[in-house]
Amino acid sequence: MTVTFVRRSSRRGGIAAANRTSSTSGTRAALAVLGALAATACLPAPALAADAAPLKIGFIGTLSGPGGALGQDQYDALMLAVEQKGGKLGGVPVQIVRQDDQLKPDLALQEAQQLISRDGVKIITGVTFSNVMMAIHKPVTSAGVVLIGSNAGPTQLAGAGCSPLFFSTSWNNDELHEAGGQLATNLGYKRVYVMAPNYQAGRDAVSGFKRDYRGSIADEVYTQVNQPDYSAELAQLQAAQPDAVYVFYPGGMGVNFVKQYRQAGLLGKIPLISVSTIDGTTLPALKEIAVGAITSSPYSPDLKNPQNTQFVAAFTKKYGRAPSMYAAQSYDAATLLDTAIATVKGNVSDSKALRQALANAKFESVRGPFSFDANQFPRAGFYRVDVVRGANGASFETKGPIVPKVNNPIAQQCKMN
């Protein structure tokens, strides 16, 4: 990233030198001041541009704890995009001000307020978990700051709670799991057992899944956030004898659940369908343990398009791991910002103009065709992605798109001001 220094010494030096002149040299002092001012005024335009401070962009994500890998992928992909563009977005030097919310909504709110009041940011991106997004969304957008989520997508913000200053490069929680429900239906499973952690995204997961699933629910179980042991729940699951299991356990929760599902002898016996459970952040820890699982995902590293091909190669080379959907969505957020900042010529203080530039931005997404719906969430595809055993161990293999429904009822509830 480029580092830009603010040089203000010449003018202050000229005035200080004049003030040190004795009173008997008043004329010379006045001439010295005028000369210094004239010299400053005659600086060429490029020198003044070089003095400009970089554009500060805030990043808030969960970078520690069991969910830390998710936020780290978001941050790493953002920084990769900035590095690829020479430390700039939209042709403007940028400084990313990073904050770790530690999956604590109250802390995230404090960090957002600091980014706005202390650092003067006009743009905040990132945000990993939905309860954090719900805590900061209104305070940030009410302050006239543009918020671009690259993962968390509370359903309320895609519907009646939408905001002109909020954009998402991911999905809303219901939509993510509606695709999972459609996938389970396509696979012909008649009775599905559903499990998720008991917080905003977990409840949205179950709601979204049930909306597009055409079978019956054997049971729906909510567990504690960051619960390490699922043995009791797995015993209940096995006793229910469902046709398949659908789970949403992001980060470390997913690692623990899938390991225990395999140890209980269930993987291969009762089909496991997951969303945000087995992905690029958890597969390195799970390895062959996860082989045989089916995932519904908005992204896979093997998607065939030019933007994704170069992104996967660059991310893998820099960080030594394949990118997850969290990385992909954050890279898209950076590309979106690059396009919009260029459109407003770096003047992000005009939030209305910036919002218009974001809404109309045309850019190449790593996920394939991408555009914004009326609620400023993406119109983008979802895919069936299986965990398979390859030449180098476990990997993801895209089996094809999951066809979404034509009308999005959540988006229809959004009335932009």
Task: Report low-confidence residues grouped into runs of 5 or more.
Answer: 1-50
- First CA to last CA: what distance? 37 Å
Report the radius of gyration as a whole number of Å: 25 Å
CATH class of the largest domain: Alpha Beta
State the shape.
globular
Strand element count: 15
CATH-derived architecture of the largest domain: 3-Layer(aba) Sandwich
Into which percent range does the helicity of residues fall? 40-55%
Largest sheet: spatial strand order: 8-7-9-10-11-14-15
The CATH superfamily of the largest domain is known as Response regulator
Tally of discrete structural domains: 3
Structural class: alpha/beta
Largest sheet: 7 strands, mixed
Order of helices and strands: HHHEHEEHEHEHEHEHEHEHEHEHHHEEEE
Walk me through what this model shows.
With 417 residues, the protein is of the alpha/beta class. It has three domains: 9-51; 55-171 and 304-380, 3-Layer(aba) Sandwich (Rossmann fold); 174-297 and 382-402, Response regulator (Rossmann fold), CATH 3.40.50.2300. It has helices spanning 9-19, 26-41, 45-51, 68-84, 105-117, 130-142, 155-158, 173-186, 200-212, 231-240, 252-263, 283-286, 306-319, 325-343, 351-359, and strands at 55-61, 88-89, 92-100, 123-126, 146-149, 166-168, 191-197, 216-223, 244-247, 272-274, 294-297, 371-372, 378-379, 382-390, 393-402. The strands form three sheets. It has a seven-stranded mixed β-sheet, with helices on both faces. Strands 2-3-1-4-5-6 form a six-stranded mixed β-sheet, sandwiched between helices. A hairpin with a 2-residue loop joins β2 (88-89) and β3 (92-100). The protein is globular, with a radius of gyration of 25 Å. It starts with 8 loop residues before the first helix and ends in a 15-residue tail after the last strand.
